[in-house]
Amino acid sequence: MDKFDNKILHELKNDGRISNVELAQAIGLSPSATLRRVQDLEKKKVIQGYRAVFDKEQLGIGFVAYVSIGLNSHTKQAQLDFEEHVRFEKEVVECHNITGANEYLLRVESASLAAYKRFHSDVLGECERVKSISTMVVMDSPKDER
Amino acid sequence: MDKFDNKILHELKNDGRISNVELAQAIGLSPSATLRRVQDLEKKKVIQGYRAVFDKEQLGIGFVAYVSIGLNSHTKQAQLDFEEHVRFEKEVVECHNITGANEYLLRVESASLAAYKRFHSDVLGECERVKSISTMVVMDSPKDER
DNA sequence: GGTGAAACGTAGGCCGT
DNA sequence: ACGGCCTACGTTTCACC
Question: Which chain A residue has the Cα nearest residue B2?
Fold first, then answer.
């Protein structure tokens, strides 16, 4: 992990589809050496993959919220039950197990407030393990580098 | 935005570097038609870009937390001051303006707990607008599709 | 790490529906 | 307006230095 590798990661973060020749001249190495490094980083799983990023509004995602969830039991089984409950809900984009007053923090992306209400009642409200739900609606994201 | 476009987006979310010919056969169209659609989606900014995703642990990110921030003033100026304060902090990966008891939710990625402590004291503690700080340490992320 | 050449993919014009 | 075919061009990839 020398400065060339760091440059590679920097470039690939900005543009995951940059061509190998462009990448090579951006970091100051030949295309073949660059390719070997990239392949090596992929093999070592430093680079886990590549993803396209989309405009949520144009895809009909008009409502984003972080939802803090408290469970009624602190057992491992309760956690597994809850995780299973949200795993296949496509509106749940992230699920984090956190420290603090509540056990979980979700990022939920819905089409609208109405759609979120449905999610709130039908998914979260129907999970027996859920004790408390606290919704933080995202009004703006002045920084989002993920 | 028909079913072909949706398939394209689905494939590019899974693998942003899939080749056009592979993408074409995955969605059941010819390469040229596929390419035109992809270029069109890029032009319309439905596809905003492509990014490589990395293994944070291998890059020395051993500590991730969501931090809820309350300000001591609800004015627009206070918000702008705070946003400016975190904009150039590279440990702050996300900054969301939210509804609820506190105004902001940050995602912070640090090398270690010690590094986070430094961030907590030197960055957040030194911002005069900040009234309350509540840290939720991420212990696990059973789902993270971003 | 660099060079070169073969294999492969891209990108755009053209035609048919 | 949209998909398929064809082809020149560029890029990737690998054996070799």
Answer: A59
Q: Which of residues 54-113 of A touch B (CB under 8 A)?
A: 54-55, 58-59, 66, 83, 86-87, 92-100, 105, 107
* Nearest CB partner across the interface for B50, out of A15, A100, A138: A15
A31-43 and A3-14 helices cross at what angle (nearest 10)? 80
Say whether pTM exceeds 0.85: yes
B29 touches strand D (CB under 7 A): yes
- Over chain A, what is the mean pLDDT? 96
Task: Specify which residue's alpha carbon is closest to the C1' of nucleotide D14.
Answer: A32
Taking residues B18-38, what's their average pLDDT? 96
Rounded to 5 degrees, φ, ψ at A53 are -110, 135
Report CB contact under 8 Å: A17, B15. Answer: no
CB neighbourhood size of A99 (10 A): 12
- B13 pLDDT more than 90: yes
Residue identified by tokens 């979310």 is: B13
Query: Which three-class secondary structure state does DSSP give residue B139?
Result: strand
**CA A110, CA B20: separation in Å to the nearest integer?**
30
pLDDT at residue A91, as a whole number: 96
CA distance A113 to A62: 8
Instruction: Measure the CA–CA gap between A108 and A47, rounded to whole angstroms.
Output: 26
Cα torsion through B39, B45, B47, B48, rounded to 10: 120
Note the pLDDT tens digit of each residue in A14-39: 999 999 999 999 999 999 999 999 99
| A126: DSSP letter | T
Nucleotide C1 C1' to residue B144 CA (A): 38
